[in-house]
Amino acid sequence: MDKTVISKGKNVKEALSLALELLDARKDEVDIDIINTESKGIMGIGAKPAVIKVSVKRSQKVRTAGYDVMNLDSLEQAVAAMDETLPVIPTHSVPSPKVLSHEATNGSGVIWVEQGRLQFETAPDQFPVLSPAAEVRVIVNGVPINHQTVLCPGDQVDVELEDESQDPEWHVKVSEDEMEATLHVTKVGYRKSRTLKDKTASTHMQLEVETVCDPVPIEEHAVLEQLTDSGIVHGIKLEELARACHSQETGVFTIAEGTPCEKGQDGYFVPVRELEIKKGLKVREDGTVDYKETQEFPMVQAGQLIGYIHPPVPGSPGTTITGNPYIPPQSKEVNLHLKRGAIVVGTNKIVATESGHPDVSIKRINVTVSVVPKLTYNHDINLASGNLHYSGDIEVGGSVQDGMKTTAEGNILIRGNVNWAKVKAGQSVIVLKNIISSEVTAGKLHLYLVDLINRLDFLIDQLQYMIRAIHQLHVSSAFKDKTFSKTGLGPLLRILCDGKQKHFLPRINDLLRMIGNATELGKSWGELTTRLNQAFTNLPVSTLRHLHDMEQLLDFVIQLREQESEELDDPKCFIKASFIQNSRLLSGGDIIVFGKGCYNSEIHARGMVHINGCVRGGTIYGGREVIVKEVGTHGSIPTRVIVSEEGVIRIDRVFEETFIQVGKHSHKFQKDTTFIRARIEENGKLALH
Amino acid sequence: MIEYEYQRTGQQSIQIQLKGDLDIDSTELIEDRLWEDVDGCNVVMLDFSGVMFVDSTGIGLLISLIRKLQQSDTAISIRNLQPDVREVFELLQLPAILGQEVFEESGM
User: Exposure check for chain B: N or C terminus, fewer CB within 10 A?
Assistant: First the structure.
């Protein structure tokens, strides 16, 4: 059947384009009869549209249209109807509605969407109502609408749908050691196309938009090309590359990896006998602690083999992603220092030349071996014996009595008590009975150094606060930070020290005074003094000019703190005693109390504190861990248990009023509690169980 | 650079309208002229609605001015702070330094 339509428009051209669209045909596929050319009328009155008749040529195959083309009769009627009701059908944009009069379909004033096209018809007593949707622009007679609209016969309804697209964005990074290439996907590519959702005819229709989002993957060959351009030839992971290119999320993907080298092994010391001093402490598998191990220091006789040196084992090279060999760090020989009492026999055997306690210190490849001689004294140390000082180990058969001092560069073993006395060992101290009203130190640390380091912690904390405040001021739009280039940070520091940081300047002065009074401090402390003086003694001329200066000072202090703190740590050292009262104990490593407990004493251990009994009053500090059976008193003496930020406190039973502290977080128990395990959780909060 | 206008609202009370930036260039004006104008007053009201920017020197000047006035028992209040300036004052804890009562009517 011939396809023919009657069409009209403002002019012939417009009418033709409408007809071609209705027929879904091209201009060269149709015959055109002009029925009426347009007339303009006067001032728009009496204007008449152009009317044409358009038929598809017989020879042309009619292409499938998206909808049924109306038959000629109904169209002619439609045109007639339009003549009566409206002057002009303006140009359509795609997709365009098909306008029908009620006579044409015998309909009843309805609106619908068919194959993505909005269509409607009116009836004399019913006008369809259209509610637009957010993602679509609906234009009625040239005016965009965004609310419910009644459609009248001949209304021109245009629907505009926007497509949206994003190309993928990415770049490739090669690690400095050329062992890894990563694909950084910074934007995921996509195309979003929108169509109107089909709707059945009804008098009121809510438009709905269907959005189809198609991913636009990264072109793998483009990535590969870039890899080639960067000289990457080895270890390309094609599967991961494909996964990255098709990823629907941004991210970093490792798309090439070199073959790692096999690290060699540095030379090392192999002991042939027991060298470690048994601390007499073993945590059994069930978590309980065995305090009853040996309580002697190991001994070696002249001529006995102490151990031998194992040579380094070289590693094997790997391959970088650029195809070059990846050389492992060279394995190093042991750097052996032999001191008193030890010699090398053959190439690598270390043998004692005198009897004593074998002292082996291993710091990475640095191995120091000596045999420490032992002084044995089988009586009490008292006014009769005098104070005892020895460069090696000391064993005292009796007790250390009132006002006496015992010092050794090595270990000290006391079979009796320490009463009102001072005991100081370069290494460990074992007291088989009690320590009463005494001072006992193990390791090379000094109390004032502990105190200085605590003060550095305060300084670090305050500097960090100042840096945060300056950062915030930098982003504050009302703050003119340009002035800093003229005045430096001095005026600002003045304000901060007036406000929240009131205690800052007095505590800096305290710190400077302490450093000044201390002897035997390293050079770095002198530099700290200079820097703090320049920065804070006279704020208006402070050497802190910029944030950067502040950060440098902070770095310096942090470094000093770490360095000095390491100096204090002496994990091999320990103090072990049965019972402690009214005393002060300081250990570079652990402190172990295997008897009744610890009353009103100050205990400071860089490593662990294990107390088998009770702690009543006083302060217990453990760098890594504090384990106690029972803490606190039902009385007036407060008890404090403290560990570092990374440490853990375990207490089986804790009484009210006991104070515990982990790093900067503290807690005071309001009632008796059992089985405490206090530590800082990953969220930065203090957990008690 | 800052400027100001003042109005005597009573025998010994004065209202000062600040305009401009309270910064290092305000030193002379605050330390000399403003101090002379408020000297002898026992109620001083500083209106900050015209102050958009501050720097640390400017705030330092303000602190020493107010401290001097407080020593002579002058009641001083700061009003109509711009939100951004208020943020800076809060950050530097001026209420803690100068006393909360100074800022009672500033919305801090």
Answer: N
